Amino acid sequence: MIASSAALQQSSKHDVSLHVPIEGMTCASCVGRIEKALKAVAGVNSVQVNLATESAQVRYVPGTPVHDLTEAVDKAGYSVPSFELQLALSGMTCASCAGRIEKALLATEGVVTASVNLATESARVRVLGKKTSAGDLIRAVGNAGYGARLPDSGKPLGTGAAPGQSKKLGEGKALVIAAILSSPLVLPMLVQPFGLDWMLPGWVQLILATPVQFWLGARFYKAAWKALKAKAGNMDLLVAIGTSAGYGLSVFELVRSSSGHGHSMAHYYFEASAVVITLVMLGKWLEGRAKRQTTAAINALQSLQPAVARVRRNNVDEEVGIAELSLGDVIVVKPGERIPVDGEVIDGQSHIDESMVTGEGLPVSKQVGDKVTGGTINADGLLLIKTEALGTESTLARIIRLVEDAQAAKAPIQRLVDKVSEVFVPLVILIALITLTAWWFYSGDIQLAIINAVSVLVIACPCALGLATPTAIMAGTGVAAQHGILIKDAEALELAHGIRTVVFDKTGTLTVGKPRLIDYIPAKISDSAAKLELLRYCASIQAGSEHPLASAVLEAAQEQGIDTMKCTEFRGLSGRGVEARLDGKFLKLGNTRLMSELGIDMSPLSMQAKQLEAKGYTLSWLASESPQKALIGLLAFGDAVKPEAMKAVQQLRDMGIATVMLTGDNQGSADHVGGLLGIDQIFANVLPEDKAKAVAKLVAGSGGVAMVGDGVNDAPALAAADVGIAMATGSDVAMHTAGITLMRGDPALVASAIDISHRSYLKIRQNLFWAFIYNLVGIPLAAFGMLSPVVAGAAMAFSSVSVVSNALLLKRWKPRKP
Questions:
Q1: 51 Cα distance to chain centroid
Q2: Which candidate, 659, 643, 655, places its Cα nearest to that of 754?
Q3: 236, 342, 405, 505: which is the annotated catalytic residue?
Q4: Is 505 a catalytic residue?
Q5: pTM value?
Q6: How far is Cα 729 from Cα 726, in angstroms, rounded to an integer?
Q7: 436-441 long-range CB contacts below 8 Å, 24 or more apart?
């Protein structure tokens, strides 16, 4: 039954209809709210929302972004189920190609977003529900004149053959043949400055140039024809038109001179067309080599996973393939071997080289109970490891996935390039036509006019524009991953360079995160029996808790040999503490805020509390709420400051970045840690739900705010910041929320993350500058007859190479040192 109460609006027969699945509807009011939200989207003509099928039928003007529809549903408080597909592409040569594929994908029914990356030769497409299949997307790309397939598992994107290149004749071999055939044509030009006027006969030039033009250069014609069929342009179209004009003019002159109608010393331009094709092929070959270097980080990470593992079953060790392992299997790892799985050490001790995963230079000591990561190297001891994660759930697989996601994503600055690329090729062809007409009119020499127009076509290079941003992102995120910094997406990379304030959570970020129980003081009689009774109460209440303070209490109780009692009605109090019924009393254990809310008199221990706070200790209070309100005792916890924390703050200060500390801890403890580290601004007694508000206030005030945290309660604050930075030693929730993840719990990596972001963004700007300058300077010079086609071809070929090479300089980056 249709639940919409509104009649369909009058729709044009040219409207597009889309079925949108919607989750979260429960009643007719939901239907009305969604209908109202969708009708408010520009271009939408009518909406039918069906509660029974949990979907909406939307009719809208062609060209209306589907993303606008899904965003309207999200803002109304509901969700549109979607999933992401990745495609490996072939046939792209420049930014114009990438833009045309994006348009083709976005025009496919059900596609919400599409992002095409020229450097990785890949596309990421988000589609509604399961209405659109990979086959539909592949067909859409094929109709646009390009190839698409689902990527091979384990094979980095962007490693395929050259577009349009024969599988039998490799790109390198084709280049060598083109160079051999072109060399005799260009040699006379090289010896002319020495007074040698020598030229091959015209028919010999024709024989040498023809295979270069139509056999080796067939790839340009094929791609150009596909572009024309799609009513678009690309680099191949410019090369095909330009070299064909030079070749055709030369054939015309050769025929004229052979028939006796032309000048006996007619000049031919076979060398221009052949050399331009050879130079473009050289440029694409060098570009391909350089692009493959940008995927070196992914290749290195993928090579860390051993193919086999030694598993112990029924006291017998046998080697099996990684795919045959199961959770809980016991893996035997000898000294010098790579650890094949994520797991826990159940026997033995050793030092582990984790440098390729975390960037940590020194081996890390591991013993029974410690976690180990697949891909790391066992240095000096025999280990037995219980398997806890396999396949796509392993740490190494997640790291590879994060790096691949970041490298395949588009930076916001790329939008400018996309807009330029849309009009680039048509504009260049128009300039070439104007050049042809103007020179012919001005000089009366049609040959000169054609050659200058060819120079314009040949020097124009949309490739450099398309490669400027993604190659810098690939190089930057790749080298960052090698040093333990995982950048989740291109947007985080672009935003991080503008960070002006870094907000730190205290516990687990600036401190070790493993507090110890320093002291526990009863409120009344402070003898040993009373102290043990206080500890017993606290340990019994927190027996089921995994909070760091609870662990410290339980560890202290275990050292004292205290047996815990069974409690009932246990409940956690967010940001305050816990409560439970125990031994006939309803007890509450928590911070000063909780005691104040209960109206507990803390004066009997106020003196001791002030002394302990001054030393930087965290305080917890135990009180009974019934049968009567009474203070029972005080606990003091100490958490050591990380040795790297002071270095982290100093590095940020050297970079001109302000530091802020947010903590739910008491003011005394916060001031002690903040003062020790030199933090600029300190906020204490902040509830978890208030951390996000505090960060949002800083963002609204000055912008450029990064939040660094590691716990579940830090996730909202990480999301509220311009850039969230999570410690991988913390919770998965924090890492999923953050834009940047530090693979080891070293706060000094924060400055390094900002530094590599700044350098990567600088490379993006440099690349875009050079890409635009090549065209802004080269095209006018060619139009005014100041560049020959050969020089123009060389400039065009090496523009892309220089952009990629500039990005590869990032591979020399090292983390900042104070």
A1: 37
A2: 655
A3: 505
A4: yes
A5: 0.67
A6: 9
A7: 439/785
